[in-house]
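> forwarded from #structure-qc
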């Protein structure tokens, strides 16, 4: 049997550039060591993403006419580098009258929605080439809303990919909440899945446990309903958040003073908790399988931790943070490449 390969991508706005840089290295090595036309989407059995990670996941899983991966990850990198400023930019006037998004949402959703429409068009969730897991949160029903392309094929839970990406990107104080409609007319009121799963790797594991991969992928070298012993999980973050908050300052911060810190702390803390939980799960396995969980989360180096800093200098710093991680961890990344090649069907 071959291992079930899971890729999980954190949220983080423009910091998704770091994710793309690391994935580009992995894809380039697959092209060198396996085949020149290799694309990431053909090597992973399930791809999960929150917020910006969901956008990257959707690009990876876009189908071509042969139901193989259409895009190399370079396409994702180009989208951020070329369109990031358009999507995340806040006008001078808006900064003046609406500092920190306290009066209304910080960024206009129009540019984001236009770019999603231009890129994904009428692509449906069920058309993605592999099972995916994309996170969001329903503010009216008060529960997580998880989108899965496999479930979209077997029941009525199908949506346009552009709508799902808009929903999972609706980070409070950055973008407004959104209402999206399933192909069967059901309406959901959603915000960013990063509110509860900025690192969706544990959600990906739980979802993979329920999927009959041998049937879905039409190949019996993969296990149905795989256990942790049957999995390789690669979880990629958008940079380690190192900003500290002074006790003296926060002691009397009040509700408004806590708005930005609380979102920042919630997102980074839940990502760290998931890493701890998965690390502990894999530590219970035999020596070889213990090494099948990878958490990749580079130092931001000189890059800003802000999710919406689209200055050219910051984009270059994000790229450099990704490249620096590759230089320092080439052996680990090459190990991942070899495991992906061995377990591809």
């Amino acid at each position: 049997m071959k291992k079930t390969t899971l890729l999980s991508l954190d949220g983080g706005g423009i910091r998704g550039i770091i994710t793309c840089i690391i994935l580009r290295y992995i894809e380039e090595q697959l092209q060198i060591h396996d085949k020149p036309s290799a694309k990431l989407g053909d090597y992973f059995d399930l791809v999960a993403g929150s917020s910006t990670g969901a956008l990257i996941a959707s690009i990876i899983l876009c189908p071509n006419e042969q139901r193989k991966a259409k895009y190399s990850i370079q396409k994702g990198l180009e989208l951020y580098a070329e369109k990031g400023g358009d999507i995340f930019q806040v006008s001078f006037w808006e900064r003046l009258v609406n500092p920190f998004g306290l009066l209304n949402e910080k960024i206009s959703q129009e540019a984001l929605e236009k770019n999603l429409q231009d890129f994904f068009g009428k692509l449906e969730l069920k058309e993605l080439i592999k099972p995916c897991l994309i996170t969001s949160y329903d503010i009216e029903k008060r529960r997580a809303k998880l989108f899965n392309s496999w479930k979209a094929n077997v029941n009525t839970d199908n949506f346009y990919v552009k709508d799902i990406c808009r929903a999972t990107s609706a980070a409070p104080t950055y973008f407004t909440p959104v209402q999206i409609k399933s192909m069967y007319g059901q309406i959901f009121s959603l915000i960013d899945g990063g509110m509860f799963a900025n690192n969706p790797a544990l959600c990906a594991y739980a979802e993979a446990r329920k999927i009959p991969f041998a049937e879905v992928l039409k190949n019996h070298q993969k296990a149905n309903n795989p256990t942790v012993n049957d999995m390789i999980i690669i979880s990629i973050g958008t940079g380690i958040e190192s900003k500290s908050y002074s006790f003296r300052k926060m002691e009397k911060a009040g509700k408004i003073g806590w708005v930005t810190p609380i979102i920042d702390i919630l997102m980074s803390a839940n990502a760290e908790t998931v890493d701890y939980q998965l690390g502990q799960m894999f530590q219970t396995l035999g020596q070889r399988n213990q090494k099948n969980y990878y958490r990749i989360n580079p130092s931001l180096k000189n890059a800003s931790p802000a999710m919406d800093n689209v200055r050219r200098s910051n984009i270059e710093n994000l790229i450099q943070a990704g490249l620096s991680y590759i230089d320092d961890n080439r052996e680990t990344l090459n190990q991942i490449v070899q495991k992906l090649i061995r377990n591809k069907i």
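QC bot note: Strands lie at 4-9, 46-49, 132-138, 143-147, 178-181, 187-192, 231-236, 293-296. Confidence is low (pLDDT under 50) at residues 87-107.
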